[in-house]
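Long-time lurker, first post. I've been practising inverse folding by hand and with some scripts of my own, and I keep getting stuck on stretches where the structure tokens seem ambiguous. Below is the full token string for one chain I'm working on. Before anyone asks, I'm not after the true native sequence, just a reasonable design that respects the backbone. If someone could post their per-position residues I'd love to compare against what I wrote down in my notebook.
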């Protein structure tokens, strides 16, 4: 039996989000975000536009393995005057390993007349031909109707002709795009309802931009009017004012309506970590006032609010913050966090009773360290080590006696300006000192190389470990060059594991070492390494 309440989630963060000013995803960023979305369980993850840039090409050449989501490639319909079989852009789109295709085409007569300068009948044929051809290569094809709402208001008959061409050609979804974000909820509801009289809502999607701060409202209005696919991005990332915020949409649909988005309560708790993961990947401060997941979303200042919340949180909280992975924050005296800590401990295999006294100690330790600048939402490996160290479960694989970094900036014999880094590390392993020296491409690479040079002979498990990302954030910019810095390092190994660690210090090299130390330690712990009984002199 068809579930009329089923709404399918389509995430376009990796393409639409990349169009945000100041956003430049690396391949490792895209891998981490796509993996997190798949873990959450959204129906579709759009990876980007193959052929548009080297990053997207590299990502599609070696995409992550999806367990729950369908991997989608984005592109355009065929060009005017070409057959779909002979269109290079369309061929590149179909030659990817993506499970499904989403292609965009014009539905506004103004664009067809002025931008494309083609006959309107040719535009309709471009849509139908492209969808039909794509279905010979992929089992699911979607059509994004660009500027649909403007097109419908200008010429409803032509806009509908474009949609129906895609639908009749076999498109699984025809997606109505409010591309410039200028449509209001009442207009969206009316137009979507009219579309669903011609095309079943089970084949209609909605894609809204946020230029009037109505992207989420417009998306919800479209769903109420019959649309059953909703597109958006994590945290509403996107060009200009952004796209519909998929985080808010998921929470609102699951907690405020009877629609089914295919996620369970356990997935809902991952919304806050997912939101903050994106901010960490972008090396930016999370927006405190974001609905559901912001640090201030359930914050209460002293006075009547705090008193009322203490008696019954429902007085000023529309939901329990824990259901979305967030927590209550009493500004004058921090509280809560126990449920979040317990959930995160369970995820890494540490089962503790809620009354265990160690929970309170760990909560306070996390809060104290986050006050110093640590952020464990994006550094799960460092959080796991923090918890396991508190329980005495992490062997002392090695400790640092000292390190020294030297940078040499000079002109070489060919008159070229070169900068070289050299690191010297002295470690203690099993009570014995071990010193190594290494050069590197910058001080952090030199330090990492020296550490590995010292440790790989003792711990062969580290041979396949590699650093895949390195980010630095200035936490106290008002302090100038004396600022506290946060370093986040992502590592990977040949087993397909990726893990993130964090370090904080007023010295960026010291912060880097702390993150490197955690990264190496986590790898050794996961591999079951044992501290050697003896170390050769």
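-- Answer (accepted) --
I ran through it position by position. Result:
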């Amino acid at each position: 039996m068809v579930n009329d309440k089923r709404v399918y989630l389509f995430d376009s963060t990796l393409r639409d989000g990349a169009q945000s000013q100041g956003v430049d995803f690396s391949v490792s960023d895209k891998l981490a975000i796509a993996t997190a979305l798949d873990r959450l369980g959204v129906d579709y993850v759009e990876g980007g536009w193959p052929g548009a840039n080297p990053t997207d090409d590299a990502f599609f050449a070696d995409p992550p393995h999806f367990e729950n989501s369908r991997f989608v490639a984005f592109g355009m319909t065929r060009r005017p005057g070409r057959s779909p079989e002979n269109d290079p852009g369309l061929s590149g789109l179909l030659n990817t390993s993506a499970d499904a295709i989403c292609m965009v085409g014009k539905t506004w007569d103004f664009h067809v007349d002025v931008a494309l300068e083609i006959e309107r009948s040719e535009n309709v044929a471009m849509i139908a031909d492209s969808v039909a051809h794509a279905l010979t290569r992929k089992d699911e094809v979607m059509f994004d109707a660009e500027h649909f709402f403007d097109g419908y208001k200008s010429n409803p008959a032509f806009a509908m002709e474009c949609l129906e061409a895609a639908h009749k050609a076999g498109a699984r979804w025809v997606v109505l795009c409010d591309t410039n974000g200028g449509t209001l909820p009442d207009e969206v509801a009316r137009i979507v309802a009219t579309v669903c009289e011609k095309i079943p809502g089970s084949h209609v999607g909605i894609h809204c931009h946020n230029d009037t701060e109505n992207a989420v409202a417009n998306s919800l209005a479209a769903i109420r009017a019959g649309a059953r696919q909703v597109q958006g991005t994590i945290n509403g990332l996107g060009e200009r004012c952004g796209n519909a915020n998929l985080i808010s949409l998921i929470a609102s649909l699951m907690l405020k309506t009877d629609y089914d988005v295919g996620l369970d309560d356990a997935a809902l708790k991952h919304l806050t970590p997912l939101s903050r993961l994106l901010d960490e990947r972008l090396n930016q401060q999370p927006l405190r006032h974001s609905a559901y997941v912001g640090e201030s979303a359930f914050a209460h200042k002293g006075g009547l609010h705090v008193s009322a919340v203490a008696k019954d949180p429902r007085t000023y909280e529309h939901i329990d913050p824990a259901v979305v992975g967030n927590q209550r924050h009493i500004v004058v005296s921090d509280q809560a966090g126990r449920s979040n800590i317990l959930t995160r401990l369970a995820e890494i295999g540490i089962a503790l009773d809620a009354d265990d006294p160690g929970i309170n100690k760990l909560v306070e330790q996390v809060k104290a360290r986050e006050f110093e600048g640590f952020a464990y939402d994006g550094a799960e490996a460092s959080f796991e080590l923090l918890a396991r160290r508190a329980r005495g479960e992490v062997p002392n694989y090695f400790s640092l006696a000292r390190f020294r970094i030297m940078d040499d900036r000079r002109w070489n014999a060919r008159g070229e300006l070169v900068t070289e880094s050299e690191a010297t590390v002295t470690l203690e392993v099993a009570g014995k000192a071990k010193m190594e020296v290494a050069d590197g491409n910058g001080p952090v690479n030199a330090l990492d190389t020296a550490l590995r040079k010292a440790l790989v002979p003792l711990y062969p498990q580290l041979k396949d470990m590699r650093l895949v990302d390195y980010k630095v954030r200035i936490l106290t910019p008002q302090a100038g060059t004396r600022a506290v810095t946060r370093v986040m390092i992502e590592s990977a190994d040949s087993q397909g594991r990726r893990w993130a660690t964090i370090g904080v210090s007023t010295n960026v090299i010291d912060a880097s070492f702390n993150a490197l130390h955690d990264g190496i330690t986590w790898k050794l712990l996961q591999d079951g390494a044992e501290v050697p009984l003896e170390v050769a002199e």
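A couple of notes from the structure itself: Residues 302-307, 331-336 have pLDDT under 50 and may be disordered. DSSP finds 18 helices and 16 strands in the chain. Happy to go over any region you disagree with.
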